[in-house]
Amino acid sequence: MEIIFFKIALILIIFLISLGMAAYSTYGERKIAAFLQDRIGPDRAGPFGLLQPIADGTKMFLKEEIIPNVSNKWLFILGPCIFMVTALMTSAVIPWGLPLEFGGVKYNLQIADINIGILYVLGVVGLGVYGVMIGGWASNNKFALLGAIRASSQMISYELAMGMSVIAILLMNNGSLSINTMVESQGTGKLYGFINISGMNWNVFYQPVACLIFIICAFAECNRTPFDLAESESELIGGFHTEYSSMKLGLYLFAEYINMFISATVISCMFFGGYNFPGIAYLQEILPANIVSLISIAVLFGKIIFFIFFFMWVRWTIPRFRYDQLMRLGWQVLMPLSIINMLITGAVLIWFNN
Amino acid sequence: MKSEIIFYLLSALSIISALVVVFTKNPIYSVLSLIVCFFSIAGHYVMLNSQFLAIVHIIVYAGAIMVLMLFTVMLLNLNKESEPHKSSLIKVAAIITGGLLMLTILASLKTTQLTAYSTPADLGLGSVQSVGMSLFTEYLLPFEISSILFMSAMIGAVVLAKKER
After folding, report:
1. B73-109 pLDDT per residue, tens
2. How far apart are CA B82 and CA A194, in angstroms?
3. Which residues in chain B are contacts of A156 at CB distance < 8 A?
4. Is the pLDDT of residue A230 over 80?
5. Would you call B100 an interface residue with chain A, using a CB distance cutoff of 8 Å?
6. Distance between CA atoms of A24 and A11, rounded to whole angstroms?
């Protein structure tokens, strides 16, 4: 019974954290953009402009809602809902830290440790397409439809390379698809078999190519620059959310930041050790378990914040691709590269196991 | 008891959504309800302890194939006026095909026996490991043959796309 209450509390906390991270990502994005372009950025609402996300949210809520007369009303409302729900669903399989212990009971900081964790992530990411497609189509606007088609064909193209790059990791991970075992195995063992730093056995050192492919695909899945052709404002006005106003537009934009947060989390769990950090075994010896657990949560969030920063850094540095370049990169470069990477990983594993 | 309630809810959902696919006039609605139908079938897989099959079902059908279907339907011009008149030959062909399909289903249903719903005894039955083992040992030949089929379909698609130039 206690476990159920704990799980419900965990779901609520992760929900609130996702929303909070997304809200402050908008602030962070504007501040980082300002920093990179030698400006000041938002500084009016509260100290250092820290209340800016709240002001933005209030503005979104209070604006007039316009539903185009000719659009399909129900699907028009359903679009942003699906996008938001699929964005929030992925966090269920992420292990957020070492287990906490209260009164002799261990509480895993993971909502659901299903044995198909990474496939669940890929499946839910694939469903995000529907929010975009339904929204773009129901707007009954040619620009919105074009944006939706671009977004969804981009997302289903890059999903393939993403899945292929994950297979290399699965091969190394003894075929376990659970994200929990994936993170745990990165915390045990020696790096390359001889460098003895605890909690440093990260997948990125073994699979840099897969990591690079995965990160590029994550950018494409989130529709972020340099792959934000779905809403390239110079050609398509705003892409699939051209007709949206008020909080429905807010949901789309917000869900995009949640997607970014979740992709940063998945990248750090799969390739950068999740909650593991160098010297974790030493700390476990000298400190109580719960404090180490709290530190591990903080470390995971540090990695997540770094990757969110990385997303923004790229956005304000690299210009947008052309659509044919995007498709060529996805199908003719990343796809074969990930397959070759998978083959080489398999061959090397067989070589070493013999 | 709990799983029985979930089973009946899922079954009702899958039957109703499958009926909506056939009877609704708006093709977008029928595509969307087909997706709901796939989800409820994935739910049945989870009830049978086959999480792997369930998620693969969602990734392949709901995540890829139905997206392409939705693509096509959305790009069609769905005005009443532009709808082409269907010739009666197509209707006859559709009736014959549907009738044949029904015959097959009836023939396969004739030998089945209805048993009470129960959760499977072997919990690892639908896991990745056991599915992979049976695919690559017991059913290796059908597996390879179907992959050759997919390969030929892919090559065919590439050839068709190249012809345009």
Report:
1. 877 766 555 566 667 888 899 899 999 999 999 988 8
2. 71
3. 63-64, 67-68
4. no
5. no
6. 20
Q: Is B67 on the interface with A (CB under 8 A)?
A: yes
How is chain B split into domains, by residue range? 1-82, 124-165
- Rounded Cα distance between A323 and A136, Å, is 18
**Fold observed for domain B1-82:** Four Helix Bundle (Hemerythrin (Met), subunit A) (1.20.120)
Bridge-partner residues for A105, per DSSP? A102
Q: Which amino acid is at A114?
A: I
R_g over Cα of chain B: 20
B63 and A145: CB-CB below 8 Å? no
Question: Which residue is it, tokens 């698809």?
Answer: A177
Structure tokens at B92: 């006859």
Interface test with B, best of A116, A158, A167, A339 (most B CBs within 10 A): A116
Q: Give me the residue label for tokens 């029904």.
A: B102
Q: Residue A226: is the preceding peptide bond cis (ω within 30°)? A: yes
Q: 């919990």: which residue's tokens?
A: B123
Pairwise CA distance, residues A325 & A306, whole Å: 28
Q: Residue A107 in 3-state DSSP? A: strand
User: Using CB atoms within 10 A of its CB, is residue B6 exposed (0-12), middle (13-18) or buried (19+)?
Assistant: middle
Q: What is the DSSP letter of A105?
A: E
B32 confidence band (pLDDT: 50, 70, 90): confident
Give A224→chain B minimum CA distance, Å: 21
Cα A342–chain centre separation: 23
Q: What are phi and psi of A225, to 5 degrees?
A: -60, 140
Q: In chain A, what residues touch B35 (CB-CB under 8 Å)?
A: 130
Q: What's the ipTM?
A: 0.80
Residue A9 backbone zone (phi > 0: left; psi -120 to 50: alpha; other: beta): alpha
Q: With contact defined as beta carbons under 8 Å apart, do A25 and A257 qualify?
A: yes
- The predicted pLDDT at position B116 comes to 65
